[in-house]
Design goal:
single chain; 160 residues; alpha+beta; 2 domains; three-stranded antiparallel sheet; three-stranded mixed sheet; 5 helices; elongated; transcription regulation; nucleotide-binding; RNR_NrdR-like
């Protein structure tokens, strides 16, 4: 790491701390040449491979803008969308890969979006799971209903 003050090609790490979100490391460094201190932030890169083959850095903002369209007219706040984007990024980073297909990001959005708003989930899923007919929507709705019934039955069983 070059010193930003004297350009000496080496520095010594004095302190390391994980950021609040746990996705980066902040390091305090000291230059052995001039003695001045400076901070660096280190993050693991995460790149997205688009359908065209172009590779670009992962962007939470793109996740939010894509999901925002599915959430139009729904009771979903910007804060809810920011939390969803963070959950998506965390789940992708947990795979341990540094490059991911854009379609995989769309699929990673589905679970947290279903928890947030089921109507927005159906809108989004219709694109990423390539719904081609009314039967595809009916199947998805039937699955959601059965999950609700299972959750209700488990809740009643726990109360007994």
């Amino acid at each position: 790491m070059y010193c930003p003050f004297c350009r000496h090609p080496d520095s010594r790490v004095i302190d390391s701390r994980t950021s609040d979100d746990g996705l980066s490391i902040r390091r305090r460094r000291q230059c052995p040449e001039c003695g001045r201190r400076f901070s660096t932030t280190e993050t693991a890169s995460l790149n997205v491979i688009k359908r065209s083959g172009v590779v670009e850095p992962f962007s939470r903002e793109k996740v939010v803008s894509g999901v925002r369209k599915a959430c139009q007219g729904r009771p979903v706040t910007d804060s809810d969308l920011a939390i969803l984007a963070q959950k998506v990024e965390e789940s992708i980073r947990q795979t341990g890969t540094s490059q991911i297909d854009a379609n995989e990001i769309g699929l990673a959005i589905l679970t947290p979006l279903r928890e947030l708003d089921e109507v927005a989930y159906l809108r989004f899923a219709s694109v990423y799971q390539a719904f081609n007919s009314l039967e595809d929507f009916e199947d998805a709705i039937t699955l959601l209903r059965s999950e609700h019934e299972e959750a209700d039955a488990a809740g009643e069983h726990a109360q007994a």
